[in-house]
Amino acid sequence: MAERLIEIEVVCAAVDRQLLLSLAVAPGTSLRAAVLASGIATQFPELDIDSCPLGVFGKVVADAETRSVQAGDRIEIYRPLLADPKEVRRLRAAKAAEARRLNP
C-alpha cells in the first residue's frame, strides 16, 4: 500500500514579490527538507534557503532540520532584516527628542 502524503504550503515574500507553493510530502519530512523539495529556491536565488530561518504560521521554528511537517502546515521562509528594529526605534526617538529640544 502506498504511503499517504501530507499536504503543506511553502511561502516566501521578498520586497517586490511573494510566492506560495502547495505540495505533498511524506510523513516525517523535516521543515527544511520540505522547503528544499518545493523548489522555491529557484524563485528566490538571493536567499540562502539552507540557512534561512523558518516558521510555521508566524512562529519561528528553532529546529527546522528535525521538526516534522504536519498536515496543513504553512512553512514560512524568513529573509534577513535590513536594519535592526531596536536601533531604528532608538534613532527615531533620539531625533524626536532633538526636535522637541529645538522647538519647545
TrEMBL record:
Matches recorded under InterPro entries: Mopterin_synth/thiamin_S_b (IPR016155), RnfH (IPR005346), RnfH_sf (IPR037021)
Gene3D superfamilies, sorted: RnfH-like
Domain of life according to the entry: Bacteria
Signal sequence region: none
Similarity comment text for this entry: Belongs to the UPF0125 (RnfH) family.
Alphabetized HAMAP family for the sequence: UPF0125_RnfH
Protein's name according to its UniProt entry: UPF0125 protein GIW75_20420
Gene source species: Pseudomonas proteolytica
Lineage: Bacteria, Pseudomonadati, Pseudomonadota, Gammaproteobacteria, Pseudomonadales
